Amino acid sequence: MDAERFDALTRSLTDPAPSRRRVLTGMTGSAFGLLAAALGVAPTQAGKCRKRQRSCTREKQCCGHKRKPVVCEPLSTGGTCESGLRCCGRSGASCPNGNCDCCEGFACNVANFTCAEFP
Known about the structure:
The protein has 2 domains: 36 residues; 59 residues, no CATH class. 26% of the residues lie in helices and 15% in strands. The strands form 2 sheets. The chain has a two-stranded antiparallel sheet. It has a two-stranded antiparallel ribbon with strand order 3-4. The radius of gyration is 22 Å and the shape is elongated. About 6% of the residues have low confidence. The chain is an alpha+beta fold. It is built from 2 helices and 4 strands; from the N terminus they run H-H-E-E-E-E.
């Protein structure tokens, strides 16, 4: 933030009688922020990453690829999982939706709901 914008911001905060429009704008922005927080929308992830089991072509498309072991690989083989490259979890990734959240070669450990390698 440059010095001019900072000065304008501090002046607007110390203004003894803000306009109705400014008050209404602030209240509307706050309401949208609260709504987004209540819905669990993360500002950095909103619409930019794909959830587990969604098709993908590279790891960076998958939500959690930076902080969790989530990659773009084939899903676990078995019954209801769709084939093809999908966002899936490797060892230690959460799997609240069962085996289809885990990559091929991994299974969901129901004791702690994390993906684990299986022989």
